[in-house]
Design a protein that fits this description.
Elements lengths: L2 H4 L11 E4 L5 H18 L9 H14 L3 E7 L8 E11 L7 E10 L8 H15 L4 E4 L6 H9 L14
Parallel strand pairs: 4-5
Antiparallel strand pairs: 1-2, 2-3, 3-4
């Protein structure tokens, strides 16, 4: 039986995660996931070299964003043996676009799931929920920032209707 036969009318099975807003108590569980993502980014481009103090920086950034009304931090908890365990997260914020309409943009800064939880609709679920949370905070458009060499992210977002809008080019000094 195909997935379409098992789930008629475009319905998909629920992803094997539960999503909720992050709390201060989650910072310790999110930091290692955030660092895994940043180290992966480093593999895509040496200009994204992870700093020696990245762990303390991650704690500070997450704590500040949990208190920021323009930020959205959601955690994904696993199912089964991983029930109540943080297995992924998404981090985003609303920023102003003073020269463009709509005037507010929701920016997905990071989205990460442990490999076991990928390819089951969980990433799409994270994207859908963070988009809704950003819209509720006033964003009129959603963008995603990730290393341009990350073909996995390029395909993930392109499949969901995202396209390049601006480019950032860099060189070391």
């Amino acid at each position: 039986m195909t997935d379409a036969e098992a789930h008629p009318a475009g319905e998909r099975p629920s992803p094997p995660i539960r999503l909720r807003p992050a709390r201060s108590a989650d910072v310790a569980a999110v930091v290692p996931l955030l660092l895994r993502l940043k180290r992966l980014n480093e593999e895509f481009d040496p200009l994204l070299k992870v700093r020696d103090d990245a762990e303390s920086q991650a704690r500070e950034v997450l704590a500040a964003q949990l208190a920021d009304p323009k930020a959205v931090v959601l955690v994904a908890e696993g199912a089964g043996a991983d029930h109540d365990k943080v297995v992924g997260f998404v981090r985003a914020l609303v920023r102003e676009r003073p020269f463009y309409a709509p005037p507010s943009e929701g920016v997905i800064l990071d989205i990460y799931l442990l490999p076991l939880y990928r390819r089951h609709g969980a990433g799409e679920y994270l994207l859908r929920e963070v988009s809704a949370a950003l819209k509720a905070k006033g964003a009129g458009v959603v963008t995603a920032e990730f290393p341009s060499q990350n073909e996995i992210a390029v395909r993930f977002y392109a499949k969901r209707g995202f396209r390049p809008v601006t480019s950032i080019h860099a060189r070391p000094l």
